[in-house]
Amino acid sequence: MALPAMRRFGSRMSKLMQILSSVRGGIRAAVHRLPALRVRAYLRARHAEVDLATMQVNGRPVIMLGEGSRLRIGRGFFINSGPIDSIDNGRCSKIVVYDGATLEIGDYSGISNTVILCQQSIRIGSHVNIGAGTMIFDSNFHSSDWRERVNRATDTHYKTSPVSIGDVVFIGARSIICKGVHIGDHAMVAAGSVVVKDIPADELWGGNPARFIMRLD
C-alpha cells in the first residue's frame, strides 16, 4: 500500500475509534443513569417528599418504604452506592423505612454505602456527610430477654428510640449510630466508632464505645 493511502487509512481508523469510544461512553452513562431513574420512579410512586430535581444517585441503592411510612429529603441530597462511587468496596447504600416510621434528611446531605434502618424516627440535618459503611439504627431488632430470642416467633419485643443528627455533622466511615442517640450540630464522629450515647454540639468523639476526644470550637 502506498504511503498516502496508508495515511488515509490510518486517519479513518483513528476517527472510527474516536466514534466507538464516544458511543461506549454514552452507553456507560445511560446505564449509569438507569438506577437513578428507577429510584426516582419508586419515590414518586410511594409519594415520598423528596426534591427529586436536585437528588444525585450514583450506583444502585436499595430503598424500601413501608405502609404509612414517611420519607422527607431536602435539596441536593446525594447517595453513593457500590465500589465505583465510594471509597470502600461495599455493594450499596440501603434505606428502609418501616411501616408507620419517619425518616427526615435535610438539605445538601449525603451518604456513601450507608445503611439506614428506621423503625420509629430518624432525623438527619442539613449539610451532613455520612462516611462509607456507616449504619444508623433506631431499634435493637431483637429482645434483650434470651428466653424470647431462642424462638424467632417470640423475638418481637424489642426497643426502639428516635435518632437525631444535627446540622453540619461529619460521621466517619464504618461508624455505627445506635438507637436513642442525639448528635449535636457541627459534631464529628471518628471512623469506626460505635455511638451509644449523646454527642454534644461542636465535639469530636471516637472509639467503641465512642468517647469525647476534643472540642471543635
Question: Explain this structure to me?
Answer:
- The chain is an alpha/beta fold and 217 residues long.
- It has two domains: 1-45; 46-215, Hexapeptide repeat proteins (UDP N-Acetylglucosamine Acyltransferase, domain 1, 3 Solenoid), CATH 2.160.10.10.
- It has two helices and 20 strands.
- It has helices at residues 3-45, 146-149; strands at residues 49-50, 56-58, 62-65, 70-73, 78-80, 94-97, 102-105, 110-112, 115-118, 121-124, 129-130, 135-137, 163-165, 170-171, 176-177, 182-183, 188-189, 194-195, 203-206, 211-215.
- An eight-stranded mixed β-sheet has the order 2-5-8-11-14-17-19-20.
- A hairpin with a 4-residue loop joins strand 19 and strand 20.
- The protein is globular and about 85 Å long.
Mean pLDDT: 86
Helical fraction: 10-25%
The largest sheet, given as strand count, sense and whether it forms a barrel, is: 8 strands, mixed
Looking at the structure, what is the overall shape? globular
* Termini gap: 75 Å
- In the CATH scheme, the class of the largest domain would be Mainly Beta
CATH topology of the largest domain: UDP N-Acetylglucosamine Acyltransferase, domain 1
Which architecture of the largest domain would the CATH scheme give at its second level?
A: 3 Solenoid
Note the main attributes of this structure:
UDP N-Acetylglucosamine Acyltransferase, domain 1, alpha/beta, 22% helix, six-stranded parallel β-sheet, eight-stranded mixed β-sheet, 217 residues
